[in-house]
Write a structure and sequence with these properties.
By secondary structure, this protein is α+β, with helices and mostly antiparallel strands.
Length: about 70
């Protein structure tokens, strides 16, 4: 079950500061360039660039909206 996997990751992290332990799919260390993240569902997979498109759109919006704002 998904809740069991999440609980197992949290227990491992709380116990030794690392979510990885035997019996769980490896959780990658964070890398700002790749923005690796774990996708926990029916199967555990890894992704990169977590919400990159949405965050880039927000950056553009705020840059355009506040381009002329004075401090």
């Amino acid at each position: 079950r998904v809740s069991d996997q999440i609980s197992d990751y949290w227990v491992a992290f709380a116990t030794n500061g690392n979510p990885n332990r035997d019996g769980l799919p490896a959780w990658p260390g964070y890398d700002a360039e790749r923005q690796a993240h774990q996708i926990i569902g029916a199967e555990v997979t890894q992704g990169t660039g977590f919400r990159r498109a949405e965050l880039d759109a927000m950056d553009r919006y705020f840059a355009e909206t506040y381009a002329g704002a004075k401090r």
